[in-house]
Amino acid sequence: xxxxxxxxxxxxxxxxxxxxxxxxxxxxxxxxxxxxxxxxxxxxxxxxxxxxxxxxxxxxxxxxxxxxxxxxxxxxxxxxxxxxxxxxxxxxxxxxxxxxxxxxxxxxxxxxxxxxxxxxxxxxxxxxxxxxxxxxxxxxxxxxxxxxxxxxxxxxxxxxxxxxxxxxxxxxxxxxxxxxxxxxxxxxxx
Length: 190
Fold this sequence. Notes:
- The structure is a single chain.
- By secondary structure, the protein is mainly beta.
- The protein has one domain (2-189).
- 13% of the residues lie in helices and 34% in strands.
- The protein has helices spanning 54-61, 75-80, 89-98; strands at residues 2-4, 7-11, 19-21, 84-85, 100-106, 109-115, 121-125, 129-130, 136-137, 142-150, 157-165, 170-178, 188-189.
- The strands form four sheets. Strands 1-2-3-13-4 form a five-stranded antiparallel beta sheet. Strands 5-6-7 form a three-stranded antiparallel beta sheet. Strands 10-11-12 form a three-stranded antiparallel beta sheet, with helices on one face.
- The longest helix is centred in the middle third of the chain and has 10 residues, at 89-98.
- It is globular.
């Protein structure tokens, strides 16, 4: 297994050359869910409220519009050192469009095996999400992973990788989500 700053990664052979971490922030193996974060936060919290959610507090208190062009504080630098960062929405779209996605169970955990053009793969566990409350929802059937890309047309959402597999549908795509939701994070490196 190859490493950058003591963290394992996989080169999927994507055109961008981006390397994907083998597990989520806070996880010790690909099957572990890891930690959950609201967008642009570097710490996990029991519950997101207007008082402890930096982005939302500015909006609700009318202090100023959020300047999306400012450098986003990166969870990767706080948790996994330099060279690691959140993927952009385009890098997530590349993962969706250029890889083969196969729903599987790995070590008893549901998720997708994502196989790159070169045959290498990563496992994304169906870790679910937390809404504004402290209850995990949709684990085992859904996964949500934050990107570093804010929605420029709305200051209360950002892009994320979403997938779901249940009796009624199977899909994986990049979408916009509410900034207050707590999602898992999978990092990339150059």
